[in-house]
Amino acid sequence: MENNNIFAKTHLVTPQEPPAITTDNLQVYYGDNHAMHDASLSFPEHQITALIGASGSGKSTYLRSLNRMNDDLATVKGKIMYHGIDINASDVNVYEIRRHIGMVFQLPNPFAKSIRENLTFALKAYGIKKKSELDERVETSLKEAALWDEVKDNLNRSALSLSGGQAQRLCIARSLAIKQDVLLLDEPASALDPISTAKIEATLLKLVKKYTIIIVTHNMQQASRISKYTAFFHLGHVLEFDTTSHIFQEPQVPVTRDYVLGNFG
Ligand SMILES: Nc1ncnc2c1ncn2[C@@H]1O[C@H](COP(=O)(O)OP(=O)(O)OP(=O)(O)O)[C@@H](O)[C@H]1O
């Protein structure tokens, strides 16, 4: 009956650093499918945390809940605390949440607009109209996302003409332009070549000085290279959360050990 005991052994540390976001007993249901069980985690400010685990273990489900992207798809129970506010409460404005907590998806999704408009679209919706401020936000966000040098000569060209890696950095820049402070990234480099992947990783390592980053990845080397903390998901449960070095060098839970050694998944 080993299967019944898999979820009994967990190892979940609470990082010393102050949290940017925490979840308390987060549960997600797609109809009758209880896809996420009791996820209680704390994501430290200005650190990269990786979410790892086999396909279907609940990583994206959990990540999407953090900025209420599951609202129309699932029932999400439990608390999601962000600066002392439970952002999972029904009376919280989800657009306001997404002003602070942004999402970058696996496949880059630039709008069919110019590079500049991709960055100014949300700013204008938030009431920023002054050209000098818009220009400043465009330049700063593109520089922070390490894209400025490649696009500065023609910001009016279509964002659809960018390469996959450039388009993904533009999507990161979109978050930076509106000064979101938590970036949720769902396998942002899995569709990219190794050079584009390296650029994204280098960008994230710079951004973490100012932003809190939570990244889903199937790439163990990537998690090791860039994250300070790692959470291991298994069949809708978080079984282990610790520093990335502990997770990869001395995992405490047998299922984590099997996963990081490549014995399944
Ligand atoms: N929109 C949805 N509607 C119904 N069920 C869903 C939906 N999205 C995910 N699920 C279910 O929730 C469970 C967890 O899926 P999820 O996509 O979160 O896993 P994952 O670990 O991110 O997988 P992957 O690594 O393949 O992206 C699975 O059983 C999946 O079928």
From TrEMBL:
NCBIfam families: 3a0107s01c2. GO terms for cellular component: membrane. Coiled coil: none annotated. Keywords: ATP-binding, Cell membrane, Membrane, Nucleotide-binding, Phosphate transport, Translocase, Transport. The keyword Membrane applies. Residues 21-260 form the ABC transporter domain. It comes from the Bacteria. GO terms for molecular function: ATP binding; ATP hydrolysis activity; phosphate transmembrane transporter activity. GO terms for biological process: phosphate ion transmembrane transport. This is Phosphate ABC transporter ATP-binding protein. PROSITE patterns: ABC_TRANSPORTER_1, ABC_TRANSPORTER_2.
